[in-house]
Input
Amino acid sequence: KNVPYSSAIIKEKLTPLTTQLKETIKRDGPISIAKYMREALTNPKSGYYMKDDVFGEKGDFITSPEVSQMFGELIGIWFLTQWMSQGKPQKIQIVELGPGRGTLLDDMLRAMSNFKECYETIDGVHLIEISPGMRRIQRLKLCGNVENGREDNAEVVSRESDGLKFFWRDSIEEIPGRWSIIVSHEFFDAMPIHGFELKKNGWHEITVDVDDSEDSPRHLRFESSTGPTSPAAFTNLPPPEKFKIGDRIEISPESWKISKQIAKYIHDNGGASLIIDYGKDFIQGDTLRAIKRHKFLHPLCLPGLADLSADVNFQYLKESAKGLVNTYGPITQSRFLQTLGIKTRLSMLLENAPPNRREILVSSYKRLIDPLSMGEIYKVLAFIPKGSTGVPVAFE
Output
């Protein structure tokens, strides 16, 4: 007797968030990619970023500050040049959006502490972070062990070593008005995106629906909305005439909003901002990706258990800042770091390093600037006040 052969694919495990998303979609209909990303990354109970440490070799991905201290040190030096060229303001603050483990800030502050005249003007360090787990890791890194009682979830901590005050904030709106250094590194790539596909009658939004079919291992799938999207619903949706039928694009209204907030803040208070991320200087489509344990997955795999990100459209960020600040770049991370003297810094570190550490220093240096590694993929965009004299260092 012939035994029937089942070709059904086994579905991946149901994460708590998958169950929640399926219920929501079955009740209310398909959701936007932006809503899917928001839930997958920042859902209070099951969001990927709401857990503890996801960074570094043992996490799901590794960032430039985690590769080498030289990265953060040179960012600090770049901001020092802006402090000097903008007249050495006497009270400044440092702001980072999505500070990760706090490594970038730690390296920046250490480099800046060698320039006492500037360092003594710092009147607060503000970390924009919504994850309670990451806030704990940042406090430990930057302020030492303050994990007792009341201070476990403290929004303000004074560092004993130098008296610097660290503030944890939920958004840029909470930052007091003052000349500021504002840095974001791998922040905008995690901002929710909306996806669109061009059909004969206009742009159709790509949504996320339930997939109960037996020929997919996932519980969710992408599909195009039945009707076209009204241009009024998305003011930054480009005109279809510039594209051909079947083209896909991604836009991030949230990125536009935050980038404009940064630009307006610098316009109103003075300062400088660096946006460091991977992406292009034009609109793209289908760049959404999931990563878990340093491997890429389908973006609808294991929601809540994998990181999600999409390429940044730097042109879009520059447009959001139009009329508010001068924008420079994007330039490659390689050009930025080499102009600021990463090779010289490497030589200094090698002089004092034990033999086993030298190899790590050299390989980290190569990883940061090599075009086939991080050197070309990552770009750097600068905002400085209108009326500032001279082009910022590295952007000439």
